DNA sequence: GCGACAG
DNA sequence: ATCTTGTCGC
C-alpha cells in the first residue's frame, strides 16, 4: 500500500466531490460523486446511487445518514480518486470525527471537509480577499479554517478528514474554487444528485450498467471490489 | 437549565 | 437539506 509521509509533496491527479440530495417529504435521497482532473478540472468520472435515509437528521450524526448512499455511489466509480472532498466537516466536529473523517477511514483515501455553515468551535471573520482565512478553534486546539474562497462572499469552513494536512486541504479547496464560492467538485456533485432526484419518481433501483459481468447492485459491486482488494486499499 | 447545532 | 420570485449589484 502506498502511503505518503507527512512531509511528502501531495500532488493529487484526481479529486472527487461528494454530495447527497434529499427529497422533501420522504427520506428518499440521491448521492453523487464527480471526479475531476486536479489540473484541468475536467470531469474524469462520475457515479450516483439512490438511497433512503435511515433516520432523521441529527447534528453530529450526519455521517451515519450519508455514508451508506455515498459508499454505494463510490462503488460505481471506475477510478479510485486521489482525494475526496466532502460536503460537511472532518475533525471540526463535537467528537472530532465528522463525515469526512468517516469517509477517509472507510475508504482509506485522503479526505477533507468543506462546510457552508459553522458547527462547533469559535473564530474571527477572515479578511475580505480570496485566500484569507482565520482559525477555527475550540478548547485550545485548531479544528480547521474559515476560508474566503471569493472576494466578499461568505467564507467556507475547511477541516481535515483523513491523511491530509490543513495546509494542503486549504490549498486544494482554493484550487477548486475558480469561479464560485464552493469547490467545483462539490458543485458538480450537487448538481448531479439534484438532477438525478428530480428526474426520477418511481423505481429507486433503475441504475446500473448492463453488459458488464459485474453486479448491478451498488452495494454488492462495492463489496465485490473490496473482496478483490481493488478498491480503496 | 437553555439555546445552538454540518446536511 | 427543502419550500421559492424577483431583485440588486458587479
What do you see in this structure?
- The chain is of the alpha+beta class.
- Helix content is 25%, strand content 25%.
- The chain contains 5 helices and 8 strands.
- The chain has an 8-stranded mixed sheet, with helices on both faces.
- The termini are close together.
- It binds 2 DNA strands through strand 1 and helix 1.
Helices and strands, with pairings:
Elements (H helix, E strand, L loop, with lengths): L13 E9 L5 E10 L5 E10 L9 H13 L8 E5 L11 H9 L3 E5 L17 E6 L2 E7 L8 E7 L3 H11 L7 H15 L19 H11 L5
Helix pairs in contact: 1-2, 1-5
The structure holds two DNA strands.
Give me the CATH fold name: archaeoglobus fulgidus dsm 4304 fold
Major sheet: arrangement of strands = 3-2-1-4-5-8-7-6
Q: CATH class, please? A: Alpha Beta
What profile does the largest beta sheet have?
8 strands, mixed
Give the amount of beta strand, in percent: 25-35%
Strand tally: 8
How many structural domains can be distinguished in the coordinates?
1
* N→C terminal distance: 7 Å
- Can you write the helix and strand succession as a string? EEEHEHEEEEHHH
List unreliable stretches of 5+ residues.
202-209
Radius of gyration: 17 Å
Helicity level = 25-40%
- Number of helical regions: 5
What is the average per-residue confidence, as pLDDT, rounded to a whole number? 88
CATH-level-2 architecture: 2-Layer Sandwich
Global outline: globular
CATH superfamily: archaeoglobus fulgidus dsm 4304 superfamily
Q: Structural class, judged by helices and strands?
A: alpha+beta
Oligomer: single chain
